TrEMBL record:
Single GO molecular function: DNA helicase activity
Domain Toprim: 115-196
Species, as recorded: Geobacillus thermopakistaniensis (strain MAS1)
Protein name, entry field: DNA primase
Domain of life: Bacteria
Biological process annotations from GO: DNA replication, synthesis of primer
GO CC annotation terms, alphabetical: cytoplasm
């Protein structure tokens, strides 16, 4: 089956639904499962004459797990001709497709450790990728990425690499998913596979090593967008060239990083021999329109609902460490030994220094006493952290996980710089340098994933 080994088939619990109308009905009845309940679970269908029949017939079956690892639904791929090619369990109280990511229950640890997720579309893409050694992969199960799925990814990873089907539909879907993820604060890259292949097809055709190289060479979102905007345009023709520049500026205007914005502005200026000042003037006109303020029936402005800001994973890790340190002298000494002053945020470094000093003076854990010694700006932070809902006893694993996020963050920043160097080398068509940097990036990622 698609070159999957028996070990892989067993790991993903892949099975088969026979081409008979009541195989599941008879099995469930023999094990005393109520058929009414099995219909509600999406395994059976009730006919007009009151008989129950199997929902899935003559299909390769893929169990779908929730994020705790419990089986909540199935997807069946038809053997032979016919439609639909894939059939999923219906929405049930325990199976809501838009809130789940396929394989997330197993990939979560690797995703958190790497601070990166690989996002694909289908079951087969995930299974082939895992067999190829990529264990931080999840899938949207063939539907558009939802807000809830994007939120889940952001809570566990700083970077999401999208690798959808290489055809035009897959590219459009990748663009939409990237916009969704960016809105939640993810750093997004896109890996476009050649010849319109999907990840499963590419791995079977070109092998695991080539697939790993394609993922390592994934492009930053803005570079992907600029390549996409070029399609269908003849940049030697003035009208197409101006349209491309305007569309590119519209996307550049959405960038939050001034450095990244300046990088792509200079790239446009160099490519088309334009002045930066002219481009920046045009950019000011290309900024996304601000939504008009809403008013109520009385004509008064409606105050927008406050939304909770999603913080980067390393920042959450630092906040959790500080919260536990305020509550535990033992935790503070462990963090002092392993992290010391290497917190990434200056305010966090300062608070950590006060906590270390507080315990070194012989005090027991007492957040109120600690806060009374802090200057005003740090007292506000400490007060906020003291209200965080954290367990009284932090596990060794959770503590190590937080420390790893804090210490690895500067290395991820170095990796991002390498990525920009590679993009610049590709733009100059210095492919030898780009390949060397790509190899360095692979080694850096290996070191990070093993740390």
């Amino acid at each position: 089956m698609r070159g999957w080994t028996k070990e892989t088939i067993d790991r993903f619990e892949i099975g088969y639904a026979p081409d008979v109308p009541d195989a599941a009905v008879r099995l469930l009845e023999s094990r005393s499962f109520p058929l009414v309940l099995m219909e509600k679970a999406g395994l059976l269908v009730k006919k007009e004459d009151g008989r129950y029949v199997d929902r899935f017939r003559n299909r390769i079956m893929f169990p779908i797990h929730d994020h705790r690892g419990e089986t909540v639904g199935f997807s069946g791929r038809l053997l032979g001709d016919g439609q639909p090619k894939y059939m999923n369990s219906p929405e049930t109280p325990i199976f809501r497709k838009g809130t789940l990511l396929y394989f997330f229950h197993e990939a979560r640890v690797s995703i958190r450790k790497r601070q990166e997720a690989l996002l694909v579309e289908g079951f087969a893409d995930v299974i082939s990728a895992v067999q190829a050694g990529v264990d931080y992969v999840v899938a949207t199960m063939g539907t558009s990425l939802t807000e809830e799925q994007a939120r889940i990814l952001r809570r566990h990873a700083e970077t999401v690499t999208i690798c959808y089907d290489g055809d035009s539909a897959g590219t459009e879907a990748a663009w939409r998913a990237a916009e969704q993820l960016s809105a939640f604060g993810c750093r997004v890259k896109v890996a476009l596979l050649p010849d319109g292949l999907d990840p499963d097809e590419y791995i079977r055709t070109c092998g695991a090593d080539r697939f790993a190289e394609e993922i390592a060479a994934a492009r930053p979102l803005m570079a992907f967008k600029m390549d996409r905007l070029r399609r269908g345009k003849n940049l030697q023709e003035e009208g197409d060239r101006l349209r491309y520049i305007e569309e590119a500026l519209r996307e550049i205007s959405k960038l939050s990083s001034p450095v990244e914005k300046d990088y792509y502005m200079r790239q446009l200026a160099d490519e088309f021999s334009l002045s930066l000042s002219a481009l920046y003037e045009q950019l000011s006109r290309s900024k996304p329109e601000q939504p008009k303020p809403q008013v109520n029936d009385g004509g008064k402005p409606v105050r927008p609902a406050l939304t909770k800001k999603l913080l980067p994973a390393f920042q959450n890790a630092e906040r959790l460490l500080l919260a536990h340190m305020m509550r535990s002298r033992d935790v503070a000494f462990i963090v002092q030994e392993q992290v010391g002053g290497r917190f990434n945020i200056e305010e966090h470094r300062a608070l950590a220094a006060y906590i270390y000093a507080f315990y070194e003076e012989g005090h027991e854990a007492d957040p109120s006493a600690l806060m009374s010694r802090l200057p005003g700006e740090l007292r506000t932070l400490a007060s906020e952290l003291s209200l965080l809902l954290v367990a009284d006893d932090v596990s060794d694993r959770e503590l190590a996980d937080c420390i790893r996020h804090v210490l690895n963050h500067p290395k991820w920043l170095m990796l991002k710089e390498k990525e920009q160097e590679k993009t610049e080398a590709e733009r100059r068509k210095d492919f030898l340098t780009a390949a060397r940097i790509a190899k360095e990036m692979i080694e850096m990622k290996k070191m990070l994933s093993s740390s």
